[in-house]
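ok so for the tutorial part 2 we go from a plain amino acid sequence to predicted structure tokens. step 1 is just haveing the sequence, like this:
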Amino acid sequence: MNYLGIKNHKCFNKVGRFLWSFLLILVAFTFSTCQSEKSKLPNIVIIFIDDMGYADVSCFGATDYATPQIDRLAEEGMRFTSFYASQAVCSASRGSLLSGCYSERIGIYGALHAYSNVGISSQEVLIPEMLKEKGYATGIFGKWHLGHQQEFLPLQHGFDEYVGLPYSNDMWPVGFDGTPIEENGDHSYPPLMLYEGNQAIDTISDLENQGQLTTIYTEKAVEFINKHQEEPFFLYLPHSMVHVPIAVSDKFKGKSGQGLFADVMMELDWSVGEILKALEENGLTDNTLVIFTSDNGPWLNFGKHAGSAFPLREGKGAMWEGGPRVSTLMKWPAKIPAGISNHHLASTLDILPTLSEITGASLPTNKIDGISMLPLILGEESAPTREQFYYYYMGDLIAVRKNNWKLVFPHKYRSYLNEEPGIDGFPGPTHQEHLKEMELYDLSKDISEEHNVIALYPELVEELMIIGDSARIDLGDRLENIKGENVRLPGRIRMEQDSIKHLAIDKKITIYTEYAVQYSGEGDQTIINGALGSLDYSDRQWLGFEGQDFKALIDLETKVEVKEITCGFLLNQKSWIFTPDSIIISISEDGKNYKTIKSFGEGAVQQKKSQRVIRYQADMEPSQIRYVKIEAKNIGECPAWHSGAGSKAWLFVDEIVIK
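step 2 — the prediction. this is what the tokens look like for a chain of 659 residues:
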């Protein structure tokens, strides 16, 4: 080998060999040092249960069954009693955990569906992407729920390995009794697929298949630990259970003697035990941080197929404490004091910056909302802690907390109180409550939020209201129709079939009624931009009107020949979205004299069907016109038969197509 002729140099025999040997030693030392530093980095395991209530494990109050493996985390680590998911609903909560941001900041609302065209943006830096900088192997085994199209799936967001469901296990064409639902043209759920990497590998077709999910996820997680025992790893284990429909494998069926929910919790406890055993067998226990928590509280109207939030108020879908406050445990031997209960305010928002401080990985350059809780979990005296928390739900600022004080703003919410829950996996009824005045609670004394003390502390209320105003400026508030100054858009897939060419694209439009900032798309031009809305009302191709009619005027700028005018509206009554009570389509040559060419009176109240887009088409004899006016009347309030009876109904409008 001849490196630029150096071997033939007359000094090579004496000096060259020395330099060359020194260089090899230096390279080896550097590599060894890097490997040594890498081996010192702790492994990270996050176990994320779906819809698990605050009192669903023994160490937080469960009594009908035992969870000894989960309890080990409390005995050998730290129990957090005032720990919050950012929001009491699936996708929003998961986006916050992985990004360190309130879901409003990253544009992920509610629960994404099989028909959603949005997902987590590639501009967001998630925990696995952050840890890749430090050489971590990364794996997720379980429920993803941040977008099911390939660009949104885990492998495109920092994970090396993925096996699991792309969204919730109830998003499938199967009824509550486990039997297939006949396709009727309105049902929107395709077969539920199990993914490996970017590919669907199997169909989850029945409850027996569902019962295998906990085992599949656990076995894959153990394989991942065994495979990566020689390098730092991040293992994310977001279980599908105990989200309905709940199911269990044969090895735990009937084992509890207390019903199916208890069986499922015992199997999840077994899963935690398998993870801890794998860490022990590989000698990794002392150098692994294990975090156990839930995405939100229990779905209480499913009765015996749901857990308990006792002693907290309400559950999933509301921002009383039973919705976002979740039982949380952390174990890291020799780092986290054992057997300690921590009552300080903390959140899943704080996990990303905590892992950044632990590993030395760089924080995202985008603004985040979490703060490192490392001093807190290490038990340091006078450790800085989170003082404030914003209770958001679907873009609404519901409440703010500072230290132990929680100020709740007027809002409407889903309530389970005084309702008979469902049985055998069928949902019972819920109803809408309307909180009309602010309320104040001291959570240090009143964790159940039973005693409103707002009249006693006017100065404190003023202070908390200022905090709320700051949150609205930063993140927005749909209740006040405020768009936040520092919010970012989610990723969006523009489907080829969603595009359409027509005469009104980018022409002048005037909308006379006010749409909600949360569903404002790209502004007025949203409904004449050549893009059709999907079944996902949050895909930014819809304008949403809460309790208001829709009226718009399109100016084609010059007279053109028109044969057809179509306008689209969304029907999704589960989300309080109804088609119009009536529609009038009018045309004009001069903008003064209008002629009605078509009117519709659909009686939307009677359309008790699944979600779909309904397009209303007016055909006409070819005419030279310049102006088109569309008027659609909102039904006003959800009808008596609806769970939101008496609350404002939504009207969602997408593309107005003129041909």
